[in-house]
Amino acid sequence: MNDTYDIHMLEPERVMFSRGQGGVFQGVINGKPYEELVVFRAFPFLYTTQYISIRDAKGDELGIIRDIAQLDEESLREIERELQFRYFLPRVTKVGSVKQKSDLWLWELQTNLGPTRMAMRNLHEHMQFPSGNRIILTDINGKRCEIADWQSLDSHSRTQLTDVI
Amino acid sequence: MSILEKLPDKIRAQMSDEPLFSAKTDLRNNGHFGEQWITFTEREILLWETDGLQYFNLKVEDLKEARAVNGVGGGTLLVDTKKGPVVVARYTAALSSVFGFAAKLLTAIAKDEERPMASEKEFPRYCPTCENPLSEGSQVCPICKNNGKVIARMLKYAKPYKLQMIAAGFLLIFTTLVELIPPYLTKVMIDDVLQPKNMGSTLLMVVIGLGATALVMSVMQTVRGLIGVWVGSKLMGDLRKDIYSSLMRLSLAFFDRRQTSQFIGRVNSDSEAMRQFMTDGVIWVSGESLRVIAIFIIMFGLDWKLTLFALLPMPFMVVVSMKLWPKIGRRWYQQWRSIFRLNVLVGDSLQGVRVVKAFGQEATEMSRYAEANREVVRHNIRIEGLWQGMFPLFSFIAGLGTLLIWYFGGQSVLREELQLGTLMALIAYLTMLFGPLQWVSQMINWASNALSAADRVFEIMDTPSEVPDVRDPVPIGVIEGHVRFDKVTYGYEKHHPVIKDINLQVKAGEMIGLVGHSGAGKSTFINMICRFYDTDEGSISIDGVDLRRISQSDLRKQIGVVLQETFLFDGTIAENIAYSKPDATPEDIMRAAKIANAHDFIVRLPDGYDTRVGERGHRLSGGEKQRVSIARAIIHDPRILILDEATASVDTETERQIQEAITRLVKGRTTFAIAHRLSTLRNADRLVVLERGKIVEVGTHEELLAKEGAYHKLVEAQQELSKIKGVEG
């Protein structure tokens, strides 16, 4: 039996994910079916597709997937979708404008999930720089967007960003 | 507030039943940004496209339960049906409260329970005009309010010093006027004395005049400077006091989410920036504008045509200033942020200096600091550089006007249409214009620095306390100590409740032991009694009065705490014991210390009760600090007592002494005690076992042991861990 004090890594071939009729993420783990599964990134900033903790609906950990790339095609597609749902972090493709109107900072953004706008009370509590050129933006209501690499954005976006970074 | 958002007519028209709930999602079902509408009636759940197309429906009779499953930055409304779970709608974090409520309502419909009432807190509010979020408890939209208000609000601080400011203003006007005399005297000297070679008394008079103006000017500058310093220091004192009192007013929840070291910088540097703007800034602006006007009047009087040349570069300068203004503001903010990060870094590593040293990480800390420091340097160069580059540019452009005057004025002098003295005076006045021109850029600097500082300061002042006092609190006097929890739910972040649906009745004088794994919600439980946070749902009452209706100062008078982290303030032991009762007599203090088993060790200290403790003073051991803080609670004489792990990390003998002290302390008071070591709770009348925020068992030690439930397991686990000291102790 597994040691409860050890991290349980799941074997990719003993894991299968799919989407239920109701659109809920489900799967079979070590031969046991689960009609609802929840995914957690152990390192949401550093490793977005690795070290994914798979938990049942109650939140108990069933195991960790070292790298989702090792999964079969359907499982991979579904876990990727589920990660995107659970970690709602649209990737910014273009920064339309960053304006400061009295005490709110307003961002007009284009993301891979469509256009959006964010409002921040200030920048020092709402912009995170986890590493390198990556920026995580959080707005007043907790909505988050990610700029994967601000240096590689188009020149308009970079100009918008120069005075806020 | 209704629980209905205004449904588009196209959708409403298709519904036969009156909707119980309707809301707009901000994500489409595929997780992309977009809008869909969710509505539900007693019979079915419907999801619509905004154009009225039905996307999805589900019969309520198939429904077992609904859940809002919150992810990171967004969430999903899930319903459990007989055929398994179904995703209904997805949303971003902005709407979690709305959908949290929707889930509760749906569950109530499915189970046919009492429908929950929506509170205003559940819905984010938006400004009706610009659709940007409104902050909690405020009706003013920050965007629709303009910058002028910030300045006006800042200037309000100058109001008590009106007289002094006016005096300074008058002095300034006077100095300005006096300052304008010397060039005119020079003109007189050249035209009436030097050129006609008219050696008479005039030369002496002019020189005396020059000397006199110089003297008057320096005297007045001194007086004005003194007034400025006086007003400035007072102003800054007021500001600092206000910022600090706003900080103290804020609830714990505000500080939970922020690093506290940042506020040191805020209180000091932000108030300095505002002070600079208000005293130097305002006086400068008014003084210099006056000077500009006066100079132009004199110049026009001397020769209006030539003066027009001096005006030529002005429009250009105004345009450039306007363009640069927002840029400078942002760069100031950047600069501030980098300093802020540096301060946080220093604050953190100094607070944790023991850990740094213990792990030998000084070098890492230094390199972290070096990096942050580099950022500050870079931003410093950027902002200072910008304005250093701006001033020469401005002077150069203004200088072009001088060149024109030299050229055309020179011609006029050669043609003898203009006197040499007048030309010299014009040039001199024009040079004097450079001073005010310098302030254009300097002022931009100050003003934007001050404005961003003011924004941050007012942000603190405007943050509503999350545990507001009611307007007319119920006077409670000396309470008996009945405490009642009624369906209490609370989470530090809403929708992640840490304690859920807690129901508990505590009699006056009863001692309740809180037991559970770490993270079970024990500390949150007692934080709720202290009203450090307000319940999200349900209520807590003391002697039948809702906590929220008792004024906080009254409440705190009745509650005493001995916390896990004993914090002693910088001061003497006596002062620390008498913290909550500054008028305590030395006898009171000693009596309290005696009960707390602290008297003996205190008297043995070389400085006795006058021993300085706190950050710089004498170092007390953990157990000694504990006993001092118990004495502090004793002198407070509370009706309700809270003990959080009071005996953690002390040796057995000390523990016995503290235990004794506590036994004496709890007598006759309603007590809530938390301890990891279950043995310390053996005096408790009842034990409450918490698991994942819920009460799972309540009863005496014996009852719970006999039950062989969660408590039994905890006890067993602990006995295994330390065979030496069982619960039976």
From TrEMBL, chain A:
<dbReference type="InterPro" id="IPR015005">
    <property type="entry name" value="DUF1854"/>
</dbReference>
<dbReference type="Pfam" id="PF08909">
    <property type="entry name" value="DUF1854"/>
</dbReference>
<feature type="domain" description="DUF1854">
    <location>
        <begin position="34"/>
        <end position="162"/>
    </location>
</feature>
<protein>
    <submittedName>
        <fullName>Uncharacterized protein DUF1854</fullName>
    </submittedName>
</protein>
Automatic annotation (TrEMBL), chain B:
<dbReference type="InterPro" id="IPR003439">
    <property type="entry name" value="ABC_transporter-like_ATP-bd"/>
</dbReference>
<feature type="domain" description="ABC transmembrane type-1">
    <location>
        <begin position="166"/>
        <end position="445"/>
    </location>
</feature>
<feature type="transmembrane region" description="Helical">
    <location>
        <begin position="420"/>
        <end position="440"/>
    </location>
</feature>
<dbReference type="Pfam" id="PF00664">
    <property type="entry name" value="ABC_membrane"/>
</dbReference>
<dbReference type="GO" id="GO:0015421">
    <property type="term" value="F:ABC-type oligopeptide transporter activity"/>
</dbReference>
<dbReference type="InterPro" id="IPR017871">
    <property type="entry name" value="ABC_transporter-like_CS"/>
</dbReference>
<keyword id="KW-0472">Membrane</keyword>
<dbReference type="InterPro" id="IPR027417">
    <property type="entry name" value="P-loop_NTPase"/>
</dbReference>
<keyword id="KW-0547">Nucleotide-binding</keyword>
<feature type="transmembrane region" description="Helical">
    <location>
        <begin position="205"/>
        <end position="231"/>
    </location>
</feature>
<feature type="transmembrane region" description="Helical">
    <location>
        <begin position="386"/>
        <end position="408"/>
    </location>
</feature>
<dbReference type="GO" id="GO:0016887">
    <property type="term" value="F:ATP hydrolysis activity"/>
</dbReference>
<dbReference type="InterPro" id="IPR039421">
    <property type="entry name" value="Type_1_exporter"/>
</dbReference>
<feature type="transmembrane region" description="Helical">
    <location>
        <begin position="306"/>
        <end position="325"/>
    </location>
</feature>
<keyword id="KW-1133">Transmembrane helix</keyword>
<keyword id="KW-0813">Transport</keyword>
<dbReference type="Pfam" id="PF00005">
    <property type="entry name" value="ABC_tran"/>
</dbReference>
<feature type="transmembrane region" description="Helical">
    <location>
        <begin position="281"/>
        <end position="300"/>
    </location>
</feature>
<keyword id="KW-0812">Transmembrane</keyword>
<keyword id="KW-0067">ATP-binding</keyword>
<feature type="domain" description="ABC transporter">
    <location>
        <begin position="483"/>
        <end position="717"/>
    </location>
</feature>
<dbReference type="InterPro" id="IPR011527">
    <property type="entry name" value="ABC1_TM_dom"/>
</dbReference>
